[in-house]
Specification:
Order of helices and strands of chain B: EEEHHH
Radius of gyration of chain B: 12 Å
Structural class of chain A: alpha/beta
Helix content of chain A: 25-40%
Largest sheet of chain A: 8 strands, mixed
CATH topology of chain A: TIM Barrel
Largest sheet of chain B: 3 strands, antiparallel
Strand order of the largest sheet of chain A: 6-5-4-3-2-1-7-8
Number of helices of chain A: 14
Structural class of chain B: alpha+beta
CATH superfamily of chain A: Aldolase class I
Bound molecules: iron/sulfur cluster
CATH class of chain A: Alpha Beta
Number of domains of chain B: 1
Order of helices and strands of chain A: HEHEHEHEHHEHEHHHEEHHHHEE
Number of strands of chain B: 3
Number of strands of chain A: 10
Shape of chain B: globular
Strand content of chain B: 15-25%
Shape of chain A: globular
Oligomer: heterodimer
Radius of gyration of chain A: 20 Å
């Protein structure tokens, strides 16, 4: 009989029982940075009001009942909410493992100490480059690198070792090695995101124009060593956890299958999260051809991103990957890929 | 014996099992049936005697076995920092 690790078991049982184990909650879409790749710019959530602290607390109650364990508080910039502390308090009382996504720019000594009181599961900070000018070029705010670095120092002073996140773009791709060294010197975990997401159709052109080429994405994936270490697990199915064991809620309370798959399914404050969750069913009709695709195993397709821009980017990347791994492929298009019989 | 649950731990009951996350060392612990029963009772603030009697009834074990289970389990949770 297979014996599963607690992590694998939790993943499997939340998937099989449709428990929203992980929920991204955007506390605000306001931010003091103006990043060139940010999907909030011009997004609908900027046009209507944020949930107030009471509404957020009600939502946390529903999420607790629904079985959410990992709560990711994100923005915009969550630290811009003056009631953030009240929300963190409630989240702790309700037994969530809380992750906080922030730019770090607002974390002074006092806030660093205060954050340490909440036993957060992790704090993730976006750093785009170790070159201050280049980082600031991406955030659109001069001096932001310095503030972010200071925020990181204030967390470290309080015993929180933040995870550094870097979405890759043409603007910072060549700085990656230096940034890795910068993070290593500070003993910080560093994660990269090679495919930035438009999240909304209306952002498609602006964000895709910033994305690194699919050749570079492929290079980055191979460089990570995943195919050499035996860590690579062929994808078994197209469906992901969106709307199955994860969900996202924006600052106005709109519920989505995932942060990257922003098809509104209802408003938590009006309909209640549990009711929305009960009937949520992600629609895969935009990926009809993927179901019979021959290289699905090597494809990193994100159904959410593909709902905003189509699957072509992923098709190309899957075909590049299959080529490099010498998986024989004869047709590559968004119409699906077929594997050619390997006669060799 | 008196126990209190460490308020820094995150925990959720999913599909009949308690999953407990220790944010300090980023470990995930999964409790078995007996552990889940004891932990749920401790969360409710039940006294050890009530829990031991409950174990006998729920799991059809002798009082001795229930006492041993309770002791081993709470000791283990203390070591892991889940109980204070
Ligand atoms: S693959 Fe995309 S849509 Fe699915 S869970 Fe991941 S980010 Fe969300
Ligand atoms: S390679 Fe293209 S057709 Fe195949 S699963 Fe990926 S996106 Fe779909």
């Amino acid at each position: 009989m297979t014996s599963y690790s607690p992590v694998a078991r939790l993943g499997r049982c939340s998937f099989e029982n449709r428990v929203p184990l992980t929920v991204h909650l955007e506390l605000t879409s306001r931010c003091h940075l103006n990043c060139i790749h940010c999907f909030h710019r011009g997004a609908p959530s900027r046009e209507s009001g944020e949930m107030n602290a009471e509404q957020v607390k009600e939502l946390l109650e529903s999420l607790e009942t629904a079985g959410t364990l990992f709560l990711i508080l994100t923005g915009g910039e969550p630290l811009l909410r003056s009631d953030l502390w009240e929300i963190l308090e409630e989240a702790k009382l309700r037994g969530f493992a809380v992750m906080l996504f922030t730019s770090g720019t607002g974390i002074n000594r006092e806030k660093g100490a205060r954050l340490a009181e909440f036993s957060l599961f992790s704090v993730h900070i976006s750093v785009y480059s170790s070159d201050p000018e280049r980082h600031d070029l991406i955030t659109g705010v001069p001096g932001s690198f310095e503030k972010t670095s200071l925020g990181i120092d204030n967390l470290l002073l309080n015993g929180i070792s933040p995870v550094i996140k870097t979405p890759l773009m043409d603007e910072n791709y060549n700085d990656l090695d230096k940034l890795r060294r910068w993070a290593r010197k500070r003993n910080l975990t560093h994660k990269i995101d090679p495919v930035i997401s438009p999240c909304y159709r209306k952002n498609k052109d602006r964000i895709i124009s910033r994305r690194i080429s699919r050749e570079k994405v492929c290079e980055t994936v191979f460089e990570s060593g995943i195919f050499d270490t035996g860590d690579f697990r062929p994808r078994e199915k197209l469906e992901c956890g969106a709307g199955v064991n994860m969900a996202a809620v924006d600052s106005c309370g709109n519920v989505f299958p995932c942060l990257s798959w922003r098809v509104p399914c209802g408003r938590a404050a009006e309909e209640g999260f549990e009711r929305i969750w009960e009937v949520m069913k992600p629609d895969y009709s935009h990926l009809e051809n993927c179901f019979s695709c021959g290289v699905l195993s090597y494809c990193g397709i994100c159904p959410g991103i593909a709902s905003a821009e189509g699957p072509d980017f992923f098709c190309g990347a899957a075909s590049d990957t299959a080529d490099r791994l010498r998986v024989p492929v004869n047709t590559v298009s968004s119409q699906g890929i077929e594997i050619k019989e390997d006669l060799g | 014996m008196s126990f209190s649950i460490n308020p820094d731990m995150a925990a959720r009951l999913i599909d009949g099992c308690y999953y407990i996350v220790d944010p300090g060392n980023r470990m995930l612990h999964m409790l078995n049936d007996t552990g889940t029963y004891i932990y749920s009772e401790l969360k409710k603030g039940s006294e050890p005697e009530t829990i031991i009697r409950g174990l006998c009834g729920e799991f059809e074990v002798s009082r001795g076995e229930a006492e041993r289970d309770m002791e081993e389990f709470t000791e283990d949770l203390r070591e892991k920092g889940i109980l204070l």
